Structures are given as C-alpha cells and as structure tokens.
Backbone:
C-alpha cells in the first residue's frame, strides 16, 4: 500500500562552483546546479538517495514550491512512507547542466560575453552531467550514495554514476532506459532537432531577447510525446474520437489526439528552451556504456542494481533493459530485473506509482540495512 505522505513546501537551491573539464576537452565554468532536498541527512551520512530526472524534467521532483499549485514530477514516489521514504532517507534531486531549469546551459549568461551562451555553449555528455553532480554531492559532504535512481535519461545518469564513481554508489536503479541509444532512438532525436532548427526564428540558436522558435520546438515535442505513449494507451485515451460530431474537411484540429498533441507542444514551449532540446538529446545520443569495461563488476565495487522495464514501452523497449542485465551478469554483479505490465508506454515510469513503489521501497530498505549477498535476493 502506498502512503500518501507529502514533503510539503519545498525550495529550489543553487550550488555554484568553478567548473569541470568536459569529455570534449573543453572547460565549462563557472557552473550553477539547481537542486532540491527532502528529508534529513543522518549523522553517518549514509542515507542519501540521488534522483535523476528525465530529458524534460528538472530539480523539482516532490512537494510544492512557493507560489505554485502543482507538486513535483515524481511526488507520488517521494515523501513520508513512499518509495523514497523521507522519514528514513535524505533525497536529492539535481537538475542537469545543458538544461534550462536553473542549471548552467545554453540560455544562461556566458561570463565572457555577458550574453546567453546560445550555441557557444559546449556540447556535453551524460558523463559530464554526472561529473557536475559529483561536485554537488561532495559539497553536501556525502562520501557514498545509498542509491542513484532515474528513468529514461535519468536511468542513463544512474548507470553513468555506477560507471564513473563505483566506489561512491551502493546501489543503482535504472528504469526504462538503455546502455546506448539505438539507431531508431537517435533518429527520433534527430527529427526533433531538425524541427527546431527548421524554424526561421531559431536563427542559428541566437534567438534570446527576440522571437523564439516556438513552432519548431512544439513539433519536436509532439513527435517526442507520441513515443512516450503506447498504441494501446492512445487507443484507450483517444481512439478515433472527433472534437466535433462530424469531419469538417479542413486542415484543422479534428481528432482528439490531434488536439492533445498540439496542447502538449504549445505548453512545452512555455517551460523549455529550444537549444536545451538540442543539447540534451545529443547528450543522450552520445551515451554508450555497452563496452564490457564500462560498468563495474563484483570485484570492482559491490553495487547492487535493480533494473526496471515496462511491457508496453516501445521507445526504450524491455529488451534494452535485459541487455543491461546481461551486461551486468557477465561481470557477476548483483542485479535484479523486473518487467512491469503496463499499457502506458514509456511514460509508465512516471505513472505506475503503486508497483514501482512496492519494488523500490523493498530494494532500498534492504540495501540500507546491509543485505549485500551477491547473486540476487527476493524483493
């Protein structure tokens, strides 16, 4: 049973530091990271859980910010008695570099010019994103994270933490993600990028302070949102229902699904930066931990993994999660795999709260209390 506790009012915090050297060889700095925390760090500093957001997410994962009505994007999972129980654990949610929700990215000011970076912002990788987060975790005085958790792009970050800092992660929960993007996933990202760049208002990325490439970004989001759902969920939600009783024989919004996609696209442009869309999709396309040397084995670090997939997810299909499991088992890592039945498609990791909560809550509690038997266990 999921307990409906809430973390209540929360505040977004900001950590500033000198910067980091990127995988490209360039230096990015200074850097600001937006983050939120829920619960209390214990005296031993061994109860910290890092929540990683997906592509269009942000640091606001739970609770309600001052002046806003809607709770954070994973509020159903974070709070007293929930999957990430803030009565027991200290939960951290960090925004990523390259984004547009408080952390340093293409829309923030370039100290060298006093203007937004735009395309002068360097390309970043998932490893760069994690490298910046490591600075935040060190700042908070945490030597080892109890768990790193995330879905989609957040799952990539969870895997990257295990690869980059195996001695500083006790467990990882990658959800609805992959070791690398397939050609189809790269193709969807490229179509979205081309939609943005085809908008005349994009102006080679230099649109700050003027008209924004809203139509291009809206189309990119519409394409993306189709991949987040499933054929079954779209049939259940819309079928072929019309907004009016009859066809109007015009190129206007006739089907309910058309209106829904336009609504999603129009709302997305109000909260997201077009250049961040380009940078973060490229970071996901660069991500590749499929080499057997990438992730730690049992002899390198005793990280425990819980890999979760969803049956109807066709953007990050279950076979990609199974590849993560096989990759880890070849290295004799402690890994448990669960595939959840759901009709929601890729969005299931945000919507299937009940089943995920039961699985994750048990896994986290057992990890915290020292169940470290290699080879798996009953959740």
Residues:
């Amino acid at each position: 049973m999921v307990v409906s506790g809430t973390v209540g009012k929360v505040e977004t915090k900001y950590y500033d530091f000198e910067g980091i050297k990127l995988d490209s060889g360039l230096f990015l700095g200074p850097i600001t990271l937006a983050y939120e925390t829920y619960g209390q760090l214990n005296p031993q500093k061994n109860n910290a859980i890092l929540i990683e957001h997906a592509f269009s997410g942000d640091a606001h994962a739970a609770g309600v910010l001052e002046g806003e009505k809607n709770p954070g994007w994973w509020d159903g999972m974070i709070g007293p008695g929930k999957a990430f129980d803030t009565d027991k654990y200290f939960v951290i949610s960090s925004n990523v570099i390259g984004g547009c929700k408080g952390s340093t990215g293409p829309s923030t000011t370039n100290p060298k010019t006093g203007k937004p970076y735009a395309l002068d912002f360097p390309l970043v990788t998932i490893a760069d994103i994690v490298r910046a987060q490591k600075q935040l975790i060190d700042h908070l005085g945490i030597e080892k994270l109890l768990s790193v958790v995330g879905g989609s792009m957040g799952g990539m970050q969870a895997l990257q933490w295990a690869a980059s800092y195996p001695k500083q992660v006790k467990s990882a929960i990658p959800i609805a993600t992959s070791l690398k993007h397939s050609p189809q996933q790269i193709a969807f990202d490229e179509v979205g990028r081309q939609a943005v760049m085809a908008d005349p208002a994009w102006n080679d990325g230099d649109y700050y302070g003027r008209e924004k490439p809203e139509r291009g970004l809206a189309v990119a989001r519409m394409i993306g949102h189709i991949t987040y759902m499933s054929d079954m969920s779209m049939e259940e939600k819309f079928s072929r229902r019309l907004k009016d009783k009859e066809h109007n024989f015009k190129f206007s919004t006739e089907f309910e699904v058309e209106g829904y996609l336009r609504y999603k696209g129009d709302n997305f442009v109000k909260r997201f930066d077009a250049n961040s869309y380009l940078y973060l999709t490229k970071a996901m396309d660069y991500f590749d931990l499929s080499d057997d040397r990438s992730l730690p084995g049992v002899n390198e670090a005793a990280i425990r993994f819980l890999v979760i997939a969803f049956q109807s997810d066709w953007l990050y299909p279950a076979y990609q999660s199974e590849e993560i499991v096989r990759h880890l088992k070849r290295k004799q890592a402690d890994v448990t795999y669960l595939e959840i039945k759901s009709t929601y498609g890729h969005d299931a990791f945000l919507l299937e709260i009940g089943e995920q909560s039961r699985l994750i809550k048990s896994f986290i509690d057992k990890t915290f209390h020292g169940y470290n038997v290699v080879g798996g266990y009953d959740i």
Summary: The CA atoms of residues 153 and 193 lie 17 Å apart. The chain has a mean pLDDT of 93. Residues 9-180+289-368 form a domain with the Rossmann fold fold (CATH 3.40.50.1820).
